[in-house]
Automatic annotation (TrEMBL):
InterPro entries: Chorismate_synth, Chorismate_synth_AroC_sf, Chorismate_synthase_CS. NADP(+) binds at residues 47, 53. It comes from Leptotrichia rugosa. It catalyses: 5-O-(1-carboxyvinyl)-3-phosphoshikimate = chorismate + phosphate. This is Chorismate synthase. Its EC number is 4.2.3.5. PANTHER family: CHORISMATE SYNTHASE. PROSITE patterns: CHORISMATE_SYNTHASE_2. The lineage of its organism: Bacteria, Fusobacteriati, Fusobacteriota, Fusobacteriia, Fusobacteriales. The keyword Lyase applies.
Length: 363
C-alpha cells in the first residue's frame, strides 16, 4: 500500500488535513525503547503550522496522543499508534477548488475517481507530514543512542546561498542550535535576506522554493545493498514522498559530471586513529548502494508553494471552460523551512530501517 513504508521500522500513515485526525502506526520499534516525550513534542513544534510569519497562518498545536505500544515510559515492542486531532480547519477556502483544481487536486481526482477529499487537499496536504516527523523523532532517538546523528539546514532560497555542511558541523550542540532556529542556516548573515525576500514575494501574492542539505554521521561502512534496495534508492523513495520535493542529489550530485574521474574519485587514506576515510566525499558516503563510512550527504530541491493568490490560468471542470484561479486561504509562502524537520525525520526513518536490516546479515 502507498501509505506504508519500511521493512523493519514499518510505518503506516493515515489522515486528511481537514478530517478528524491524522496519524501513524509504527511497527518494529525495539521493545524497551525509552521515549523522550519532550523531544518528540519539540520535533512536532518545529514542523507545526502557524509558528512564524514565514509560515501558513493556520495554527495547530500538533499535540500527539499515543494510543498503544507504550507503557511506563518504554515501548512494548508491539505496534505504536499515534493520532493528532485537527482543530483549525477552514474548509470553505476550498469550495471553489473542486471546480478549479490546484496542486494535487486534478491528479488526485483522476486517481480516486472523484472521491478524493479536496478539503485542504485531504491526504495530499503537507499536513500529513506531521506523522513522518513523529515516526522520525522516535527513529532519531534510537539512532542517537547508536552514535548516528542527522542534521539539516537551508542551503538556499532563490539565489541566497548558505555554505555547505562539513563533517565537523554535525555535533549535538550544533544540531540543537539549528533545531531552535526559525530559519536554520549556518551563515546567520543570510537570515534577514531570506526573511526580506520571502516577505516581498508574499506581498506580491507569490511564493518561493529552495534547497535543503542533509548530513548523516556515525554510520559504519557496509550498510545498504546494491541495486533495488540501495541506500540512495531507499532514501530517494522516502524523500520523494515528502510533498513539494522535486529533486535529490547525493554528494557532488549533478556537479560530478563536470569533473574528471581523477577529480571525482574519493581518494582514501588512514587517519591518525587508523580509520579509513576519504579526502573528498563526492559520492555522498554511498558507493554501490552501500555506506562507505563517510557521512551520507545529500541535497533536496523543494518547489515554490503551489497555492498562490496571484491569478493564474486554470480549467473549470464544471463549466468545461478555461478559467482563472486565485487561491485564497492560509498557505506557506515558502515550504523550505518547514520541510527541514520533515526531511530530517524522513531520513531517520530510512536510516533506522536500513540499520535494522543490516543486523540481519552482520553477525
Ligand atoms: C510542511 C509542508 C507544508 C506545505 N504547505 C503547503 C501550502 O501551504 N500550500 C500548498 O499549496 N502546498 C503546500 N505544501 C506542498 C503540497 O502539499 C504539495 O505541493 C502537493 O501535495 C503536491 O505534491 P508535489 O508538489 O510533491 O507534486 C506543503 C508541503 C509540506 C511538506
Ligand atoms: C496545516 C498545515 O499546512 C497546510 C498545508 C497545505 C498543503 O496544501 O499542503 C495547505 C494549507 O492548508 P489549510 O488550507 O488547511 O490551512 C496549510 O496550512 C500543516 O502543515 O500542518
Amino acid at each position: 500500500m502507498a501509505a506504508n513504508f519500511g521493512k523493519n521500522y514499518k510505518i503506516s500513515i493515515f489522515g486528511e488535513s481537514h478530517g478528524n485526525a491524522l496519524g501513524v502506526n509504527i511497527d518494529g520499534i525495539p521493545a524497551g525503547t525509552e521515549l523522550n516525550l519532550e523531544f518528540l513534542s519539540q520535533e512536532m513544534r518545529r514542523r507545526a503550522p502557524g509558528r512564524s510569519k514565514l509560515t501558513t497562518p493556520r495554527v495547530e498545536k500538533d499535540e500527539f496522543e499515543i494510543l498503544s505500544g507504550f507503557f511506563d515510559g518504554k515501548t512494548t515492542g508491539t505496534p505504536l499508534a499515534m493520532i493528532i486531532r485537527n482543530s483549525n480547519q477552514r474548509s470553505k477556502d476550498y469550495s471553489e477548488l473542486k471546480r478549479k483544481p490546484r496542486h494535487a487536486d486534478w491528479s488526485g481526482f483522476n486517481r480516486y475517481n472523484g472521491f478524493n477529499d479536496i478539503r485542504g487537499s485531504g491526504h495530499f496536504s503537507g499536513r500529513i507530514t506531521a506523522s513522518l516527523v513523529f515516526a522520525g523523532a522516535i527513529a532519531k532517538q534510537i539512532l542517537k543512542s547508536q552514535g548516528i546523528l542527522i542534521a539539516a539546514h537551508i542551503k538556499s532560497v532563490k539565489d541566497i546561498e548558505d555554505r555547505d555542511f562539513v563533517e565537523s558541523d554535525i555535533t549535538e550542540k550544533n544540531i540543537n542550535k539549528l533545531r531552535n532556529m526559525t530559519l536554520p542556516v549556518l551563515n546567520e548573515e543570510i537570515v534577514e535576506k531570506i526573511e526580506k525576500v520571502v516577505e516581498k514575494t508574499r506581498e506580491e501574492k507569490n511564493s518561493l522554493g529552495g534547497i535543503v542539505e542533509l548530513m548523516v554521521t556515525g554510520l559504519p561502512a557496509g550498510i545498504g545493498d546494491p541495486y533495488f534496495e540501495s541506500m540512495e534508492s531507499e532514501l530517494s523513495r522516502m524523500i520523494f514522498s515528502v510533498p513539494a520535493t522535486k529533486g535529490i542529489e547525493f554528494g557532488a550530485g549533478f556537479g560530478i559530471t563536470e569533473m574528471t574521474g581523477y577529480e571525482a574519485n574519493d581518494e582514501m587514506y588512514f587517519d591518525e586513529n587508523g580509520e579509513i576515510k576519504s579526502f573528498t566525499n563526492n559520492n555522498g558516503g554511498i558507493i554501490g548502494g552501500i555506506t562507505t563510512g563517510m557521512p551520507i550527504s545529500f541535497k533536496v530541491a523543494i518547489k515554490p508553494t503551489a497555492s498562490i493568490e496571484k491569478a493564474q490560468k486554470t480549467v473549470n471542470l464544471e463549466t468545461k471552460k478555461n478559467d482563472i484561479l486565485e487561491v485564497h486561504g492560509r498557505h506557506d509562502p515558502i515550504i523550505v523551512p518547514r520541510a527541514v524537520p520533515v526531511l530530517e525525520a524522513a531520513t531517520a526513518i530510512v536510516i533506522l530501517d536500513r540499520v535494522l536490516e543490516a543486523k540481519k546479515y552482520q553477525l
